[in-house]
Specification:
heterodimer; A: D-Maltodextrin-Binding Protein, domain 2; B: mainly alpha; globular; disordered N terminus
């Protein structure tokens, strides 16, 4: 019995090596295919790709991963990178690639269709969708009157152990927004108080769940985490709600998910078509179907019932929040990293 | 009769196999070279500044707390469990053996996700220790149970006939013979703990490995991450050498099958009820609760059924990659193990120990080092299945080595010498005499490596051809998006598919022999 099992394991292993070798040989790229490294939510990009292929006939090979891991991978790949396009969930990875001179500017005609603040100054990347930093709170633990107008308030001793935070996915940009309002020293003091009084979670989803279950009263997360949980559990069952910081406050930050073309691409025309499609009306609508994000293209309405974008935000460009080397330095100085 | 003898390396070795043995040694040198090279970019003062930061000390403390606690607890649980199922009169011993081995089929990634969703009390260090202890206990239980079964009770009879009491016999006769199995299991558990990332990502525990992932996420010049990786390797080296010391010079090879006598069975008496309750609680905590949570998500979430069309490709992806990886890893491990047992010299020792030193490295570092080297020096390999398999070999070689060594130690090298004096060529003698005797170890190695590869995440994500999906990568991507119900079928399939190698492995290990 075990001998047979062992033999079948060996045979299975040999067969599967053969299958892998054969499979890779038949995977040769045909004309009209681009490779997109995707760190954005998978469903968002898959919906975009489906519409893109339907409308242009160009096929897309998606490589899914965490945005920063993909950026590190592209840096290690250097001149031989197989990627044509990189779609990142956060702006720092694309800003880093830009600083290393790895990106090709988007066509002027494409960049002109969205507000200039939603793209890098040299158009090497453009925004594709946007999300908002919010404070989610447990309705049984926080009264509406207690909700703070500023993100600077939630780190005071009065909030000891009542605010959850996550140091990834939007947090570096958040720090840069505080730097913009309070300066470097102010931001450092804010981070130190946050470390002292806040509760660190390993992911936005974990922090969101913690608020919903009443484990912590509030948490700093991206807006769509609440909508995602509400979709899963039913909105009427939600024990938590979203609080927006006052317009102009560092906490009312709007973050971009940017997209850019690699300089090493061998098919820049196809890659340019993909970027143009991403910010077209059809592309924007496809991407907004699953997650509660905002469009970058004026005139497209979000699929979820979201607070209007002109009632939130602070005057800071995506390029400024994306240069997160300072945020990294501050986090290390505050002992968070 | 078994012979216990203290010997050095000895015996002949076919040159063809020596060449094969060199391959894994060269492979594992790659991430080491990569980590050292990238660390050096920080400069000496940068390195000193980094290592003396208070955060580095915090990481060291929490990493060691986790690794030591889980190792000690799994050894206690595993040895106690093995003692009870193999040497005590517990009713339904066969069923409890399955309970004690079954957590192997439940990936720590899944059980950690399930437990963390139950409340904050499971998300801290204590929770992490509990979750990972439950998940890893079989890694000690199985080899120890197998060792207890394989012992020749003749030694114990001799000890007792010489007037030793039961405790003295246990300590002086049983423990020394079972120690390599215990140490081998403990080494695996502790190096797993150093490299664990998936399970900890749902908890609030920071280790060197989670910090390395964070560094790669936060910045794009990775001297710091490389430096932390070097520290992690430094932590693995004493583990790898310590295990070797325990094994060194012990030889348990036998020329006959030994006696078929059964060992003396101890009556549990009044302890029977608490022992039974303990096994039941273990099964409930390690399997029942995580699997129950999976079923709950499946039934309650609105994302149920999303992406289900990818279930079949994911199963195919998991099976083809893990089976190929298991086979390749095992093939490369055999000559390495035999060379280290039969040849003397520092080079052989280092080649055999290096894989253990990098076993504690996170998959991310291994994968990035392969990206770096492949794209520069072997571009056709890049994003081909072959590179994934190479990463798998580097990650899990020690599992294969340990399993094969356990069998190889029972084969007297003199057998091959006899074949050669009868006129066989070295390679033929090896193929016809030694290899058949290694089959049990090869089976165990295949099962263990395949099992671990099915849940491998980071190297697969970074290195597989674009578009390849496995059960682990799909589960991961849905839990990242908080779509619990959509993730549940992939987790359930992972548990069920993992059941096959666990079954093969358990049967093989516990076959009375």
């Amino acid at each position: 019995m075990t001998l047979i099992a062992r033999r079948s394991l060996v045979a299975g292993g040999a067969a599967s090596i053969a299958a892998l070798a054969f499979g890779s040989a038949s995977r040769a790229q045909t004309g009209g295919t681009i490779t997109v490294y995707n760190g954005q939510h998978r469903q968002t990009t898959e919906a975009l790709v489906n519409e893109f292929t339907k409308s242009t006939g160009i096929k897309v090979t998606l490589r899914q991963g965490e945005s920063s891991q993909l950026a590190n991978q592209i840096i290690e790949e250097g001149a031989r990178s197989p990627a044509d396009v990189f779609y990142s969930e956060q702006s720092p990875p694309l800003v880093a690639l830009d600083e290393k001179g790895l990106l090709l500017p988007a066509d002027d005609a494409t960049a002109a269709q969205i507000p200039a603040a939603y793209a890098s100054p040299n158009k090497t990347w453009i925004g594709a969708t946007m999300r908002v930093r919010v404070l989610v709170y447990n309705k049984a633990m926080i009264k509406p009157g207690e909700l703070p107008p500023s993100i600077l308030d939630v780190v005071t001793p009065a909030w000891k152990d009542r605010v959850g935070y996550v140091i990834r996915d939007g947090f570096q940009e958040q720090i840069m927004a505080v730097v913009k309002v309070k300066g470097r020293d102010g931001a450092l003091a804010w981070l130190k108080s946050l470390k002292q009084n806040g509760r660190l979670y390993n992911g936005n989803g974990a922090a969101m769940n913690a608020v919903e279950s009443g484990e912590v009263a509030t948490a700093l997360v991206n807006n769509y985490y609440w909508y995602g949980l509400a979709k899963e559990r039913g909105e009427q069952n939600m024990k938590s709600a979203i609080h927006f910081f006052q317009k102009g406050d560092a906490g009312a930050l709007v973050n971009l998910s940017p997209i850019g073309i690699l300089k090493t691409t061998k098919q820049p025309e196809l890659a340019q078509k993909f970027l143009a499609f991403a910010i077209s009306e059809a592309g924007q609508k496809a991407m907004l179907a699953t997650y509660a994000e905002y469009p970058v293209r004026p005139g497209v309405s979000p699929a979820f019932n979201l607070k209007p974008i002109d009632e939130i935000g602070i005057p800071i460009t995506a390029h400024e929040v994306g240069g997160a080397a300072l945020a990294y330095e501050l986090q290390r100085e505050a002992g968070i990293l | 009769m078994t012979a216990i003898a203290r010997i050095g390396g000895r015996g002949s070795f076919p040159p063809a196999l020596l060449a094969v043995a060199a391959i894994p040694g060269l492979l594992v040198a790659l991430p080491i070279a990569y980590a050292v090279m990238r660390s050096a970019e920080a400069g000496l003062s940068g390195i000193i500044a980094e290592l003396t930061r208070p955060v580095t000390l915090e990481l060291l403390i929490s990493t060691l707390t986790l690794a030591i606690s889980v190792t000690v607890l799994t050894v206690i649980l595993g040895v106690a469990g093995a003692w009870v199922t193999e040497r005590c009169d517990i009713p339904y011993a066969g069923a409890w053996r399955i309970v004690a081995s079954a957590p192997l089929a439940m990936p720590a990634l899944v059980s950690s996700y399930a437990w963390s969703s139950l409340g904050p009390q499971f998300q801290g260090m204590a929770g992490a220790i509990m979750i990972l202890t439950l998940a890893c206990a079989p890694l000690v239980y199985l080899p120890v149970a197998a060792a207890l079964r394989g012992l020749d009770p003749g030694f114990e009879d001799v000890a007792r006939s010489l007037g030793r009491g039961p405790w003295s016999t246990f300590l002086n006769v049983v423990v020394p013979q079972a120690a390599p199995a215990v140490m081998g299991g403990a080494l695996l558990v502790s190096s797993h703990m150093l490299a664990e990332f998936g399970a900890l990502s749902f908890l609030r525990v920071q280790t060197f490995t989670t910090a390395i992932f964070q560094q790669y996420e936060m910045q794009f010049d990775n001297a710091t991450a490389a430096l932390l990786s070097s520290v992690l390797m430094a932590l693995c080296i004493p583990l790898a050498l310590g295990e070797m010391r325990i094994r060194h010079g012990r030889r348990f090879s036998r020329s006959g099958k030994g006696t078929a006598r059964s060992p003396q069975i101890i009556k549990l008496g009044v302890y029977r009820i608490p022992v039974l309750l303990g096994f039941a609680a273990f099964g409930l905590l390690a399997i029942g609760i995580p699997f129950g949570m999976l079923m709950y998500w499946l039934a309650s979430g609105t994302s149920a059924g999303m992406g289900l069309e990818r279930l079949a490709p994911a199963i195919v992806g998991s099976l083809s990659y893990s089976l190929s990886g298991g086979l390749l890893t095992t093939i490369l491990a055999i000559p390495l193990v035999l060379a280290s047992m039969r040849l003397r010299g520092a080079v052989v020792t280092i080649a055999e120990r290096l894989p253990y030193a990098i076993h504690g490295l996170p998959g991310l570092v291994i994968a990035l080092s392969l990206v770096f080297f492949a794209i520069r020096y072997a571009p056709p390999l890049y994003q081909s299945p072959a590179l994934v398999l190479i990463a798998y070999v580097m990650l899990y070689l020690p599992l294969a080595q340990s399993a094969i060594r356990a069998s190889a130690e029972l084969v007297p090298p003199e057998l091959e010498d006899v074949a050669r004096t009868l006129g066989k060529k070295p390679l033929t003698a090896f193929m016809e005499v030694t290899l058949p005797n290694l089959l049990p170890g090869i089976g165990a190695s295949l099962a263990m490596v395949v099992l671990q590869l099915m849940r491998e995440l980071t190297a697969t994500l970074l290195l597989a051809p674009s578009g390849v999906v496995t059960l682990a990568t799909e589960f991961w991507s849905y839990t990242n998006d908080r779509a619990f119900a959509a993730a549940a079928p992939f987790a359930a399939a992972l548990v069920i598919v993992s059941g096959v190698p666990v079954y093969v492995f358990t049967l093989r290990t516990l076959k009375r022999g």
